[in-house]
Amino acid sequence: MRALLIIAAAIAPATADAQSTAATLWKGLAVGDSPEVVAEKLASDPAIRSARVQPGRPGKEPQIAVRYRSDGIDVFGLKFMVSPDFSTGKLQRVFLTTAPMCANDAPEQFSRISAVLHDKYPESPVKFDVTDDDQVRSARLRGTDDKPATAGRVFRGSGVTVTYQQTFTAEPEPPSGYVTSPAAAALGRFVVNQYLARQRECDGTGNHRMTHAIIYMTNDAFDRMDEEIHKAATNASDSAKTNL
Questions:
Q1: 8 A C-beta contact, residue 22 and residue 30
Q2: S-S: 168 plus which of 96, 143, 146, 178, CB 3.0-4.6 Å?
Q3: Residue-wise pLDDT tens digits, 188-223
């Protein structure tokens, strides 16, 4: 359970990391970099056409608008988009994410990407009680549009912790029932036809989709997150003992 909570918490809003200002997260992007420095570094990547700062609205952090030369950053044929994450105007994390895609090859993709991340970040700060294949297949079976399910692993290297996630959804079959007008019947047929067209994709499993996310943060930031999850779990257990 702790491992799954950590995987889910990795996408929560970041707080400023004052202890690891020199840590390089991904391709030269370092904790504490300003939005302008991040945009300049990203623009030098061969896969990126341009990167510019979009100032945040009052109370919001700035963002970096990135344009790619070919749909994204290629990893085993998958196209990832980069999203720097700022707190108080300083870089704290880097997200690499994909658009929703077919989920047929999820276990194989999980294995390939995990193997490369393990080679680069060989430590494993979080232990899972199930195999990668079982974790991925379970998440795919459980995931729905209303309640996505995530499989993941955590890797650690010198100063940096990397969380890799696959998140699964499944579009439910449209409801069928009595309709009171020709217009409602026509709309119902349109919705069903759209669903069936999507389902025929991905070798007949197109109602199931997945996304990839790779999240880079400092070891200190990850350890603080882990400690907060442990404290919350302990408090919940203590409360249960009191009430049972």
A1: yes
A2: 143
A3: 778 788 878 888 888 888 889 999 999 999 999 999
pLDDT at 141: 93
> Token pair of 188, please?
């119902």
In 3D space, the residue among 34, 202, 17 whose CA is nearest the CA of residue 92 turns out to be: 17
| Separation of CA 48 from chain center | 20
Rounded CA Rg of the chain: 21
DSSP code at position 10: T
Q: Is pLDDT at 33 greater than 80 in this prediction?
A: yes
Contact 95, 193 (CB under 8 A): no
93 beta partners? 85
Cα angle 152-215-121, degrees, rounded to a multiple of 5: 75
> Using an 8 Å Cβ cutoff, are 195 and 173 in contact?
yes
Q: What pLDDT shows up at residue 20?
A: 45
Per-residue pLDDT at 242: 76
**Residue with structure tokens 């609205």?**
57
Beta bridge partners of 225: none
Helices (H), the chain: 2-9, 35-43, 106-120, 132-142, 182-204, 219-243
DSSP 60: S
pTM given for the model: 0.84
More confident residue, 85 or 195: 85
Residue pair 43/16 in contact (Cβ under 8 Å)? The answer is no
Residue 16, pLDDT above cutoff 60: no
pLDDT for the residue numbered 226 = 81
How many CB atoms lie under 10 A from the CB of residue 195? 16
What are the angstrom distances between the C-alpha of 89 and each of 11, 21, 82, 147?
Answer: 18, 13, 17, 32
